[in-house]
Structures are given as C-alpha cells and as structure tokens.
Fold Glutathionyl-hydroquinone reductase YqjG.
Amino acid sequence: MESSGTTETSAERGAFTRDTNYIGTRITADGRDGYPVEPGRYRLVAARACPWANRTLIVRRLLGLEDALSLGLCGPTHDERSWTFDLDPGEVDPVLGIHFLRDAYLARFPDYPRGITVPAIVDVPTGQVVTNDYAQMTLDFTTEWTAHHRPGAPELYPDALRDEIDEVNRLVYSEVNNGVYRCGFAGGQAAYEAAYDRLFTALDQLSERLSRRRYLVGDAITEADVRLFTTLVRFDAVYHGHFKCNRQKLAELPVLWAYARDLFQTPGFGDTVDFAQIKTHYYVVHSGINPTGIVPKGPDLSGWHTPHGREALGGRPFGDGTPPGPPPAPELVPGG
C-alpha cells in the first residue's frame, strides 16, 4: 500500500485522503479469478519499510508459507516511478529479472494509472502483477493457502471470530493505520489537529480494550493484532516525530507499549522488522515533510526486548498451534 506514485493526496482544506482502488484479483484454491493457488508459481514483493507490506511478511511467517510463496524485497527508498530491487545483486530481482516493480504492473496493465504499491504478488511465469490488494492478501493467505500451511499454523481468522475481527480491523485501519498518515500528510493546521485528535482517541480506546485482554480478539493472535502491530512498531521511530503524532510516545502509553513488546518478542513479528529501513524510507522519501533528507539517529530501540508482563493476562499466542521456526537465512533482517 506504500506507493511510489500518487495514491496519497491532500483533499479540500488539507485533509489527507487515500486512494483505495487496488487490483482486486484474488489467488484462490479454486482459481476462480484465473489464478489458482500453486506453490512456487507466485512471488510476493514487499518492502520491510512499509507497514502494509510488513503485514504480509508476518502472516507468511506465521503460516509457514515461505516454501510455497517466494519473497522479493525492494529497498527502502523509491522515486515517483516505482519501488526498486536495489538490495539485490545488480539491482535486479533474481526471480523476476526486473529492477522496477512497475514493470510487473505494466506487463499486465500497460496503461496502469495509479501508484506502484507494495505489497504485490506477481505471477512468475508471465511476469505480471496479480494483486496489490494488501487487505485481502493476508486473509487469502489464511483461508485459501491452507493446503500449504506449516503443521501447527495458527488460525488467524477463525470463523467464530470473523465479525469481531472485521469490526476491530475497521477501527484500526481508519483511525490508526491510516490515522498516522492523516496526521503526517495533513495540508493545514485544522486538518492536522482533527486527525491528531482522532488518532489518540482511538489509541486510548484500544489501550482500554487491551488492559483487560492480551490480544485484540479472542485469546490468541489474530489478523487484528497483525494489523495494529505494524503501526505501533513504527510509532516512536517515525510517526511520533516525522508525522507529528506527538501527544505521547508509544513507550509512554503503558498498555500499548507492553502489548507491542509482547508481539515484537513473538516469533514471526519482531524478526520481520528492520528499523533502519523504516527510518530511511520515511525520512528520505517524504521530502515534502523532511526536505533535508536527514535520518535521525534515535530513538533508543533497546526497550523492545525488555519484559512486558502480558503473560499475566493469559491467552496463548498461537492458540492450539505452535510458533514458527526461525526465518530462512536469506530472509534474516540484518542485525536482527
């Protein structure tokens, strides 16, 4: 959902709006959209800097889809044209053979009119993008790729809890995931202050909810926790300062800070997070907000590894399942 193009705009009176028109093609077990689930056929293209792509990295890890769905990682910066594979030798993805992710979009849609976003899934045989619908993507990993889940994979979207998960997800997306962007890209003081108030009202509501329970829905990790985590983990590193979400740092919100540390220390979460890439992306790419391109040295990130005490609330991180094993060696976060 992070874009190299124009999916982020300022509307009337400076209020930020997001273009939410994505490629809705789905990869399903029955192949009803023409793209059946097939191990080895598709490549997930993500960027560790991007919170929307980070969701797919976490869910892919938790479900054990590494062998079925290969991973291409773009670097943390891009220009107005496209995300690029500048982390790879020769700055070319070794599977897709391209430097610009936009080439996969244009291979399917020669006149693609929108920004080039991650995450995206590419059909390797044709080199064509299949989908960039980040919200549906992780749900389909959970519900359509079940034949390729690892033994002990958790139920991230259980039938009995879907209505509640959907309800929580709507709040988290509108007020938190997108709320920080609404603050950061506000084009006027009034729009910024309204966005700021909405964001912290929602964080207070979530803090109250999580003061009584270890996870957002049920007694185990679900899709809802994945979606909230990727914003919280970036909060102090970029959103507090860069996006002016500065009523408090996450580390000054006791419940949410403990909750975020609990998840960070859970296999599949913190081992997908690259703080260096996160900071580089936001402070370099958003030149309208940070024209000098200076990337701050701080904050001190050592607190992410401190005890959180959330075990006292009960719950089982993986429900009846088990933790994922360590990441494949090529996917280890440098210095992680």
Notes: The CA atoms of residues 26 and 292 lie 41 Å apart. The radius of gyration is 19 Å. Confidence is low (pLDDT under 50) at residues 5-12. DSSP finds nine helices and eight strands in the chain.
